[in-house]
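Note on ligand handling. Small-molecule inputs were canonicalized before submission; formal charges were left as drawn, and no protonation-state enumeration was performed. Where a ligand contained multiple stereocentres, the stereochemistry in the source SMILES was retained. For adenosine-5'-diphosphate, this procedure yielded the string shown in the input block below.
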Amino acid sequence: MGVNWMIKKALTIAGSDSGSGAGIEADLKTFCSFGVYGLVAITAITAQNTYEIREIRELDAKIVREQIIAVAEDFGVDAAKTGMLYSGEIIKEVRKVVKDYQFPLVVDPVMLSKTNTLLLKEDAIEKLENLFKISTLITPNINEAEFLSSKKITNLDDAIEVAKTLFEKYKTNILIKGGHLKGEAIDILYNGELKLFKSQRVSGCTHGTGCSFSAAITACLAKGEELEEAIKKAKDFIIKSIRNSYRIGKKYCPVNSLSILEEKAKRWETYRELKESVKELISLNPLHLIPEVGSNFVYSLPYPYNKDINDVAGVEGRIVKTKRRVVPVGDIDFGVSDHLARAILTYMEFYPEVRSCLNIKYSEKTIEKAKKYFKVSFYDRRKEPEDVKKREGATIPWGVREALKFGKVDIIYHLGDYGKEPMILIFGKNPKEVLEKLRLLI
Ligand SMILES: Nc1ncnc2c1ncn2[C@@H]1O[C@H](COP(=O)(O)OP(=O)(O)O)[C@@H](O)[C@H]1O
Ligand SMILES: Cc1ncc(COP(=O)(O)O)c(N)n1
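Structure output:
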């Protein structure tokens, strides 16, 4: 009907996690990140946080079935996944209803939570194995693969052997996730042929990685992508979701499965705000405050997206002065500032809410004025330790750290060194605030 074809729909059949790190909550966030419309059939409700599962209430198998039929008949389902199915009765019912539909089905054989609570009743395993046989893909982690094969996995070769065993047993695509092995995060796909998906191991929160990963594969399958392409995209997604997570809760903090959406939005917002303020700076035309080496005006993405200089927007080629005018040399872009980007990233290690910075020409008069209105600090480049001097790009972070030893400040200056121009840096929460401070110094 109408524009129904314009968005793909993915269904998750899983348990609810009240902490929203795993389960249907994680799956919905993931579907959303991939631009797929998410549908749900809830199997159980867990009273859960980052350190324990306090209670589990299993839902009646009939209401699980009715949820699936209700959404499938109306929206249509382009791909589905299962997570925590909990009981043999629920699994039996799910199998009965999904086998009549044609959609790809990813089965994440969730058995145990990170906090060590059983999410599958012990007598349900045989029913789960029946479900594997009608699936497109199963995604056991190392512990689940060990349980299903009754073999110990201590390294990649063991995991490959087990993937082959499981393929012989269930005759479906097997993806063993390597999150729990040491070293690189390597996932193994076996379907008669072997394919490894490798990525670096990143640090961050991991509660809900398995759920979000299988949901990402499902979303890509819903969009009609081939399985290997879907796994590749899910892997890129899960790395970002771990790296860009917020350390919330007391123990196993949740992955940020909305991070790819949020980061894009923040990039646009950051770019727009800086662009506006650079325009305003140009119209102020503060010729006498532009240093010989030029100024830059930078604005970093907020925490947790402020990882390196590519996450800081600035003016390409800096802002320079001609005879009468202050002019930006190039466009606003990310990763185009080096010195000032390092300064703001270092400042954010201490005060993450301070995201913008502008450098202006040093003069005693300007510093005197600044001291009237602001907290001012400085560092002495001549005191820079030899080992810092030798390290490329280490001077500014060292200087900012030195200056912040006196607490949060609006302005940091230094008096230069042999061949280095003295400089004043103005800091603020955003470019607008930096400009307000600049106005008082003109
Ligand atoms: N620290 C990490 N760095 C990079 N990838 C990881 C990390 N931890 C898990 N992964 C990846 O996340 C996905 C989920 O894996 P895993 O954590 O093993 O599943 P589960 O949550 O079911 O135990 C896999 O693609 C795995 O390789
Ligand atoms: C409802 C539900 N589903 C799945 C998991 C597994 O996730 P994790 O292994 O991160 O605990 C969970 N804890 N809760």
